[in-house]
Design brief:
The structure holds two protein chains of two kinds.
Chain A lengths: L10 E14 L2 E14 L3 E5 L6 H8 L7 E6 L2 E2 L5 H9 L1 E5 L10 H7 L8 H14 L15 H12 L6 E5 L7 H18 L2 E6 L2 H7 L2 E6 L2 E7 H6 L4 H8 L6 H7 L11 E8 L8 H9 L2 E12 L2 E11 L2 H13 L2 E7 L1
Parallel strand pairs in A: 3-8, 3-9, 6-7, 7-8
Antiparallel strand pairs in A: 1-2, 1-4, 4-5, 9-10, 11-13, 11-14, 12-13
Helix pairs in contact in A: 3-5, 4-5, 5-6, 11-12
Chain B lengths: L1 H6 L1 H5 L1 H36 L8 H15 L3 H7 L1 H8 L4 H26 L3 H9 L4 H12 L1 H22 L6 H11 L4 H29 L2
The chains are: A alpha/beta, B mainly alpha.
Subcellular location (chain B): Cell membrane
Pfam families (chain B): BPD_transp_1
InterPro entries (chain B): AA_ABC_Transporter_Permease, MetI-like, MetI-like_sf
């Protein structure tokens, strides 16, 4: 993850008290309410929510595909609501967008689809051809230039869509559930491509998703949206380590198997049957500053046995995140001392059984 | 020639007139087809853009065009053709013959043709339109680069349907003096009980429609990816 210094990085998209209401047959449905966000240049900003939470509406307000009814939304300082006609279209060319269903034109070849985005901005046909070649090279599909979308796999289609979205050299890329229709391996390769493009082109990427794993893999910031309102936002590591809202907690739980211990306890699994003097603990990494060999350290220093039942540790933002479920075995005072030591090290400790 | 004189004696006796009638039918279908295709495309695009979820929503334009189409579609063609006689005469100078038939044919087929093309355009995935918008494309360019282009196979399919209906309408204008194969079949086959004239007309029309459908299928195959 590139280090984005949030104090100096200029704001790419500033959203203040955004409001969007859908009206049909005299009935009003609030799609967005009091949404405020700052997305800095260079961020990979995740917006996660369940379907119908308003995340797609929010991202469509950014490039003016949806009009908002209140509040303010500026991109590089320009209020989207004030842009019309040519100004709005010029801005859209500088904001790429990719979609869950790829939205490639079936009647055009791969090269034709990418060229479509250049028809209004590059006049010379040979120049366009050259640009298309470079873009297809960038997404690793140079050999598919003459294929039609129907001949491509989902991952290849999304690569073409990415090449098309980048054709006019945008500095912001909107990704609306771009990996939701792809299998896990393809998802990974697309996310890796997005990450590379972010690093090499300095793109700001706004990622709409309902999958916490996507946030975990590429985002540095995340906002959780529920019923049209932001319920929690912050750095991805902090949100994963310390989810506060109930919805965030349930999203985080989907990416970890540490909750499984409760099932084991309920089932009286032999794995968690304790002998006298043993303590069943859940240790969670909740701070970024953990890098020492904790398990062997407490085992050696306090003379206790540490039996790892299971663990789930991931690396987010170059810091370990997740935790272990362990059984400590030893003298009661040594265990207490070890637990105190871990707490001092900013490890979240939860005694599950003793 | 033998089979023709043996099985279709009345047609054989009037072969030049029969061929003439066929040519008239082809001309009526071709001229009306081209003009009404252009009109129908314009009307269908107007409806697609001005509908509530369209790119240029406009309730007034949409409702007027929509209701006009319904109005004309609800009038049976034979009544419409008769009712249009004064208008046709004022416009083209005559209400009979191929020349007088084309105007009522256009009025008769265009509403149906428009609905067909409208449904072809409605089949274009809204996601494609949204993608084009997100590229910063103008509405006019979206019309021909996305709506019309992506709907080409469907437009060909519905055009075949409309042209086949149009062949039916050219037979009906025969009754109000329009000429063509319909006129031939009615004058000889129906009014003078020359059954072979009717059957010969049927065979020629079946083959004619078969050829139109064949060409349509080939074009769909070429344009669909």
């Amino acid at each position: 993850m590139p280090n984005v210094n949030e104090n100096t990085a200029p704001v790419a998209v500033a959203i203040r008290e955004l409001k969007k209401v859908y009206r049909s047959d005299g009935e009003e449905k609030v799609a967005l309410h009091d949404v405020s966000l700052d997305i800095a240049e260079g961020d990979i900003y995740g917006i996660i929510g369940l379907s119908g939470a308003g995340k797609s509406t929010l991202v469509r307000c950014i490039n003016g595909l949806e009009r908002y009814d209140g509040g303010s939304l500026t991109v590089h300082g320009r209020e989207i609501a004030n842009l019309r006609g040519n100004d709005l279209r010029a801005l859209r060319r500088k904001i790429g967008m990719i979609f869950q269903s790829f939205n490639l034109m079936p009647s055009r070849t791969v090269a034709g689809n990418v060229e479509l985005a250049l028809l209004d901005s590059v006049n010379s046909k040979s120049e366009r051809k050259h640009e298309v070649e470079k873009l297809l090279e960038l997404v690793g599909l140079a050999d598919k230039a003459d294929a039609y979308p129907s001949e491509l796999s989902g991952g290849q289609k999304q690569r073409v869509a990415i090449a098309r979205a980048l054709a006019n050299k945008p500095d912001i890329l909107l990704s609306d559930e771009a990996t939701s229709a792809l299998d896990p391996n393809t998802t990974k390769s697309i996310l890796k491509l997005l990450r590379n493009l972010h690093d090499t082109l300095g793109l700001t990427i706004i990622v709409i998703t309902h999958q916490m794993s996507v946030i975990k893999q590429i985002c540095n910031k995340v906002a959780v949206i529920d019923h049209g309102t932001i319920v929690e936002e912050g750095h991805v590591f902090d949100i994963f380590a310390n989810p506060k809202a109930a919805l965030t907690q349930s999203f985080v739980a989907t990416t970890s198997n540490l909750g499984k211990i409760h099932d084991l306890l309920d089932e009286h699994s032999p794995l968690v049957q304790l002998e006298p003097g043993q303590v069943l603990l859940r240790m969670k990494y909740i701070s970024k500053e953990v890098s020492e060999a904790l398990v062997s350290h407490i085992s050696r220093t306090f003379g206790i046995d540490v039996n790892i039942i299971f663990g789930d540790i991931d690396v987010i933002d170059n810091a370990p995140l997740g935790g272990l479920v362990v059984i400590l075995d030893g003298a009661a005072d040594r265990i207490t001392a070890a637990v105190d030591y871990l707490k001092d090290r900013n490890i979240g400790i939860e005694v599950l059984a003793q | 020639m033998n089979i023709l004189t043996q099985w279709f004696p009345n047609v054989a006796n009037r072969l030049p007139e029969f061929i003439d009638s066929f040519v008239q039918t082809v001309i009526m279908v071709a001229v009306t087809g081209v003009i009404s295709f252009i009109l129908a495309t314009l009307i269908a695009v107007t409806l697609t853009l001005t509908e509530p979820a369209g790119l240029k929503p406009n309730a007034v334009v949409f409702n007027i065009v929509d209701k006009l189409i319904n109005l004309f579609r609800s009038i049976p063609f034979i009544i419409l053709a008769a009712a249009l006689v004064p208008v046709t005469r004022a416009l083209v100078g005559t209400a009979i013959g191929t020349k007088g038939a084309i105007f009522p044919l256009i009025i008769g087929i265009t509403p149906f043709f428009s609905r067909q093309i409208q449904s072809a355009l409605a089949g274009v995935d809204v996601g494609l339109v949204e993608a084009a918008e997100s590229m910063g494309m103008s509405v006019t360019k979206i019309v021909y680069r996305v709506y019309l282009r992506e709907a080409i196979p469907s437009i060909i399919r519905v055009s075949v349907i409309a042209i086949v209906s149009l062949v039916g309408l050219t037979a009906i204008v025969g009754i109000v003096g329009g000429g063509g194969l319909g006129d031939f079949a009615i004058r000889y086959g129906y009014q003078r009980y020359m059954l072979d004239a009717t059957y010969a007309t049927v065979i020629v029309l079946v083959v004619f429609i078969g050829i139109i459908e064949f060409i349509g299928r080939q074009l769909v195959e070429i344009t669909e990816h």
